[in-house]
Amino acid sequence: MGRWSRWRRRTNGRVSGEPVALLHGLGCHRQTWDPVVPLLNGQREIIATDLRWPTRWAG
């Protein structure tokens, strides 16, 4: 993902199956998924990304 995004992985250590990647929409950020994460935590590893927007990230 590198310079075009930031991401966070969340797990409680007792996961099974494939990880779930959560992508936000235009003008949003990875915290958009915060209400959903507790519902999935414990079932799957969760990867939430922050896509880079020039207006959000200077430099």
From TrEMBL:
Domain of life: Bacteria
Name of the protein: Alpha/beta hydrolase
Species assigned in the record: Streptomyces scabichelini
